[in-house]
Known about the structure:
The chain is an alpha+beta fold. Helix content is about 45%, strand content about 20%. The chain has ten helices and eight strands. It has helices at about 25-35, 50-60, 105-120, 130, 135-145, 155-170, 175-185, 190-205, 220-225, 230-235; strands at about 10, 20, 40-50, 80-85, 90-95, 125-130, 205-210, 225-230. The chain is elongated.
Amino acid sequence: xxxxxxxxxxxxxxxxxxxxxxxxxxxxxxxxxxxxxxxxxxxxxxxxxxxxxxxxxxxxxxxxxxxxxxxxxxxxxxxxxxxxxxxxxxxxxxxxxxxxxxxxxxxxxxxxxxxxxxxxxxxxxxxxxxxxxxxxxxxxxxxxxxxxxxxxxxxxxxxxxxxxxxxxxxxxxxxxxxxxxxxxxxxxxxxxxxxxxxxxxxxxxxxxxxxxxxxxxxxxxxxxxxxxxxxxxxxxx
Length: 237
């Protein structure tokens, strides 16, 4: 099946041996959001729907089921993402370019997906590119690659975190990069490692900041509203 946009392969958010195949930048931005959502335990991309079920739904809705142009053979329909949450509920997400959503044929295909989800007691949502063109999504895309930390670094990470919060409390109006630099020196780490720890801390929720701003280290920590998430830190101890 054809798809517009770039194609990208990224690691699964929890399974290091599994690759996730995404067909557009919009899908990438949606996937990092789902990966960051602590209620989500599994995500399946390009989830194929049983052909016999979607053809029956198409007949019921009186719409033409998508088919190959040359053979007229029905094409298996896919939902961009099917996610499972900790409470057992499932949600199907269709991620579309905003300009496509007014297209009548696109609406018919979405109706097939929504109909299948309804029959299978799955919530269905359509996400447009406009929903994903946010600073928050851009920050998540960057932080996604810092989501994991090697176990051998846990000890240094905890020491760095304490040093970072100490420097933050005394110099919150300094540039974030300068606070990171001092925390790295106190911990005996290179700056790059301290930055990695900082980004990882945000991903796992130990550090809060203003998600509506680009995560630019040259900005003062006070402007970024960088602060410890005390509730999550207590669980770390």
